[in-house]
Design goal:
single chain, alpha/beta, Rossmann fold, 2 domains, four-stranded parallel β-sheet, three-stranded parallel β-sheet, 45% helix, globular, oxidoreductase activity, acting on the CH-OH group of donors, NAD or NADP as acceptor, oxidoreductase, SDR family oxidoreductase
Length: 257
Amino acid sequence: MVTGAGSGIGRAVCLALAERGARLGVVDLDGDAARSVAEQATTRGAATAAPVSCDVSAEGAVREAFDTVTRTVGAPTRVFANAGTEINAPLHEFDVDTWRRVIEVNLIGVFLTCREALRRLVADGRAGSVVCTSSPAAFVGHSGGGNSAYAASKGGVSAFIRSAALDYAPYGIRVNAVVPGATDTAMLVNGVAYDARKDEIERIREAAKAQVPLGRLARPDEVAAAVLWLLSDESSYVTGSHLICDGGLMAKSANDF
């Protein structure tokens, strides 16, 4: 089961799992996007793919999404809690409703998704793997600025996975986080006005690339490969960890000598 599956990294994870014949719950706020990815997953080899529209910040909606996925493709033992949003502004200009929405989607959404997964795994006596999406913003300041709400939400995710990993290790359930750096997805330029010129969007993309030691943006499929490893039994002794997939961004000193 993948949340935020309608685009970007979530979509890439669904398609990579599809190529391995997985049964998929494709969950996204945008129902049309979820249906499109489910169709693509089926053509890529998924045994079955069920699209579900869900606002992960709504408790009842998350419960219903798990019910739908369980009924149509089977109870999920591998869950990628990936749905997120990014809204940037100088802190002194942030209104509380916007701040709250970022926290609701990025942190409460992860909590609700993981809680529902964990409840069901524990009740059924099954082991499993849960992966959450964190960010370098959880660990270091964002050079673009105005990132306080997003950073706070992702910092919460990183603290959350460590605690959950300890609590559920006795059940054979692993909880980890992937930490993508600048990735070539729509979210990379979410802070740009919707009517911004193409050259302005390209300027932001080039500025992001310049910060990365590998000198380029990540492809969504590269981050998906990291997620698949954490979901799989190949990482069977890994829990409470962060898999950093950022092209060396967090390893780089702020000082260029």
